[in-house]
Automatic annotation (TrEMBL):
The protein's name: Uncharacterized protein
Species: Cyanobium gracile UHCC 0281
Tree of life domain: Bacteria
Length: 106
């Protein structure tokens, strides 16, 4: 059973996430990398409570098969990423082009 006191482990292997991260303009890409570096130093409890990351459950989109829930978090000032928790791993899925897109709204 995963512990909320465990350090967050990053999974950046999703090809959609990788492409979207690498396509960001340099300042935003650097901000996203700074955020990822911050996340990997946190415990799950700290991530859940961090006011800058704003970890939120997405209820407007049905999670893909095999995932309990989808979440969004702020990855830069202008963008949110979607992710899900898998044990101690945060599996990053996408970087939304704007805030509403993270929640399935256009």
């Amino acid at each position: 059973m995963p512990s909320d006191d465990a350090k967050v482990r990053l999974d950046l292997n999703n090809p959609v996430f990788q492409e979207q991260l690498l396509m960001l303009q340099k300042p935003e890409r650097h901000a996203a990398l700074d955020t990822l570096n911050k996340i990997r130093q946190l415990t799950w409890n700290q991530l859940y409570r961090d006011p800058g990351l704003k970890w939120e459950k997405i209820t407007s989109i049905k999670p893909p098969k095999g995932m309990d829930s989808l979440y969004s978090l702020r990855i830069s000032r202008a963008r949110r990423a979607t992710a899900h928790r898998d044990g101690d791993f945060i599996r990053l899925l996408t970087i939304a082009p704007d805030h509403d897109a993270a929640y399935g709204k256009t």
